[in-house]
Amino acid sequence: MCPREGNHLSCSKKCNKKMNILIILLLGFHGAEAVLHSLSYGYTASSGIPDFPEFVTIGIVDGQPVSYYDSIIREEIPKQDWMKQTEGPEYWDMQTKISVQAEKGFKVSIENVRRRLNQTKGVHIVQKMYGCKWDDETDRVSGFNQFGYDGEDFLTFDLKTQTWIAPKQQALLTKMKWDRDQLKFKLDKQYLTHECIGWLKQYIDNGRKSLMRTDRPTVSFLQKSPTAPVTCHATGFYPDRAAMHWKKDGVEIHDNVDMGEILPNNDGTFQMSIDLSSIPPEEWEKYECVFELSGVDDIVTRLRNVRSNLDKPGTEGDPFPTGAVIGVVVGLLLLICIIGVVIWRRRNNEGFKRANTSDTSSDPDLRVYT
C-alpha cells in the first residue's frame, strides 16, 4: 500500500535553499492543536519563477517534513532519518510515480486557471493541501482537502456536507461540476477518514522517538529601538503545543501585550514570540516572560540582557538567535515576494488520472482544474 492517493494511488544543491524555504512556509500552516496528530501533503505548481521548481510536493507528519519531490530532482526523497530507515525502495518508487503524475496534471491546471482568469504573463501559483487528523485520546478523526490560487482560497472540500465551497466566483463552475461527482466524494471520504488515518498511525509508530520528543527552547529578548516594544523570543522547541505570556510582579498581564504566531524553523523545531510595549527600562526587572510547553516545566525568564538592533550581531555570548530568526523571516519574505502568495491549496478536475494501483494513501483528489 501507498500513503498517498494518486488515483487511488495511495500512495540540486541550487534549489536546496529554496526547497527549505518552501518547507518552512508550508509548515507555517500547521496549527498547534493540543492532542491531534496530522498527516498532510502540499502540492505547489508555479509559473514565471526563474530557477525555482515548477512543481513541488511535501509530505508532513505532525509538523515535520517527511518527504519531498520537485520537478528538478524528479525523485521523491525522505526528509527524516526514520522515514529512510522504515520505508524501502518500493515505497519511494511509488511515491515518485505519484508525484510525477501529479506534476503533469498541475501544470495543465495552472494554464487552465490562467486562461479562465484572463491572465497570460507573470508569476502565478496553484496549490493544494490535503490530509487527515487523529486525536489519539478520543480517537476522533477528520480530513481536509483544499485548493488555492495565488495565495487565496479557491476551493475547499466540506467533509460533513460532502460539497465544495467556492469563495471565488471564478471557482463556481468547477464547484458545480465536482458537486455532481458523488462517487468521487465517497472515495475522498474513504481516503481522508480511513486510509490516511491508517498511514498516519503507521508513521507515528515508526517515527515515535522523533515525533513524540520534547525539545526545550532558547529564550531571549530583543528591542529594535529604545521606544519599540520588547520582544520575548523562544526558538528551537518541539512540539508546537506551546504558549507564552508576560508577568509583572508575578502576576500575568494582558495589557500592551501582542502575541505572535508559532512558526516553523527549517530543522523541524518551532519558534514564537510575544511583545510587550510601554515599559520603561527602569522597570524591566519587574517583568518576566513565561514559556509553556506541553510536557515540561514552564521556562520563566526575567526581563534583562535585552538585545538591540544597535548591538553587533553574532558576538560571543549573544543570546539572541539572529541567524535563525532572520533566516525564517527572509525565507518567508523571499517566497512571498517571488511567488506573491501564501502556500495553501488547490484542486483539479479530471486531468489527474490516478496510477494503476488499488493501494491508496496519498492524494484524495488528483484532478485537473477546468
What's the topology here?
Layout: E1 5-6, H1 13-27, E2 36-47, E3 55-61, E4 64-70, E5 77-78, H2 81-86, H3 89-116, E6 124-135, E7 141-149, E8 152-158, E9 163-165, H4 172-179, H5 182-206, H6 208-211, E10 218-223, E11 230-237, E12 242-248, E13 251-253, E14 257-259, E15 263-264, E16 270-276, E17 287-293, E18 299-302, E19 307-308, H7 322-339, E20 362-363
Parallel strand pairs: 1-20, 10-19
Antiparallel strand pairs: 2-3, 2-6, 3-4, 4-5, 6-7, 7-8, 8-9, 10-11, 11-16, 12-13, 12-17, 14-16, 15-16, 17-18
Molecular structure report:
Belongs to the MHC class I family. It holds the Pfam family MHC_I. Residues 217-289 form the Ig-like domain. The chain has 370 residues and is of the alpha+beta class. The protein folds into two domains: 5-210 and 341-363, MHC class I-like antigen recognition-like (Murine Class I Major Histocompatibility Complex, H2-DB, Chain A, domain 1, 2-Layer Sandwich); 218-334, Sandwich (Immunoglobulin-like). Helix content is 28%, strand content 30%. The protein contains seven helices and 20 strands. It has helices at 13-27, 81-86, 89-116, 172-179, 182-206, 208-211, 322-339, and strands spanning 5-6, 36-47, 55-61, 64-70, 77-78, 124-135, 141-149, 152-158, 163-165, 218-223, 230-237, 242-248, 251-253, 257-259, 263-264, 270-276, 287-293, 299-302, 307-308, 362-363. The protein has an eight-stranded antiparallel sheet with strand order 5-4-3-2-6-7-8-9. Strands 10, 11, 14, 15, 16 and 19 form a six-stranded mixed sheet that branches. A hairpin with a 6-residue loop joins strand 10 (218-223) and strand 11. Helix 1 (13-27) packs across helix 7 (322-339). The longest helix has 28 residues, at 89-116. The chain is globular and about 65 Å long. The two termini are 30 Å apart. 42% of the residues are buried. The model is unreliable at 7-21, 27-34 and 314-370 (pLDDT under 50).
